[in-house]
Amino acid sequence: MIFSSWQFILVFLPISFFVYFWLNHRRLVVAGKAWLVAASLFFYAFWDVQYLPLILGSILLNFAIGTGLAQAHKAGEGEQKKLHHAVNRKVVLATGIVANLVLLGYFKYTDFLIENVNVVLGTDYSLPHILLPLAISFFTFTQIVYLVDSYRGETAEYDLLNYSLFVTFFPHLIAGPIVHHRQIMPQFASRWTLTRRYHNILKGLFIFAIGLFKKVVIADSFAVWATAGFDGGHQLGFFEAWATSLSYTFQLYFDFSGYCDMAIGASLLFNIWLPINFNSPYKALSIQDFWRRWHITLSHFLRDYLYIPFGGNRHGEFRTYINLFATFLLGGLWHGATWMFVIWGALHGVALVIHRLWSRLRRPLPAVPAWLLTFLFVNFTWVFFRAKTMDDALRVLSGMFDVGSAFGQAPAAIPVADLAWGGWLSDVALNVLPATLIGQLPIFLAIIAAFIIVAQKNSLEMAHGVIGRKRMVYGTVLFAVAMYFMLAATSSVFLYFNF
User: pTM here?
Assistant: First the structure.
């Protein structure tokens, strides 16, 4: 069950909403929270029930360790006692973090480690091909943050029910955003969230409709061309290679930002504001600006729990560059256990170092070339992020730089009939549009997508303020179109479910 499925939109979400507020209306507040936890666990188990004990065990273990760390912090009085408690708490914290990382490493990196051992040592150990449990990266990082903050004495006295709701709340459970306890748990504790707020419901439905449209209409259409180019195995000409890379650049953005919009929208129905995860990242004028706008909660995690503990910028310029590079190298590895993600992270780490060096010259580029350089670099590095092998990445990149093939090149064979459009819309595209336009359709749509992203307001800017009649009509039209596309096509999972 995914957000962009009729089961979620027409069954799960309405039942969860009405039962929750019915229980609250009857003043059964604890029962309402328990209902949301149960509904969220059902949502998680719907994918594969065998991993339900995994998330339950993770919640119990981290809650116990976090509670112990918070209580020990309060109990540490007196110099000797403080020292004794500090040593014990560091051991407990280290144990908790290691336990989480071992669990994550076993499921996510075992095959990668064995495969590289075989290459380096010439061994022939068999790969266990362990299936990655859904959302393990997200709920593991969320709880590591909780442990670290408990050690610092920055967590309140939460009970198990509220903590379980914080971890499992279904809008953010599967693919983020990576939530912080200070952002979410006070909202669950507030009585203001216990009754229906119709302005939140309208705003939530409006944002959800935009996200659904992004996913099933835009992202899933670009996905056809990205898959054909990256996984086709054939040599790509100039236009086809650029169509491939740009299709993935926009597929990834509209897919992940669409998911986050739906997560924010669904959460707002319950009067809970999730943190913003996207702020028009393709409008960025530098790579640093890009990372302040793209996957914002991950950027904050990398900054607060990797870059700063590494030393940040406190130990000289050279050490700062090393810390930047190491942070993004690990950030790349977090996304997946392949060398493609490592290369992608390393490229962004190098780019941030170069940006920092350039900034010291105090000669900023004009806005247009700064935007173009940033966008082209991001598009270039997404090739490594998407490619399954180095050969696939080099095949796409070589086509992008093969300018000679652009002259006299026949239109690429674009699989329009396989688009998420379905039915008569595909027939219209095939029978009405000229063959030349059909061949270069991804390029034209990429240009349109770039214009929409750069020149128009983002979804949260459009939802700002009171949702009036005009925006209600706009949201209804988007939702109706998206529902048609969703029901006419085989719905695909969100890209970040793989991470």
Answer: 0.89
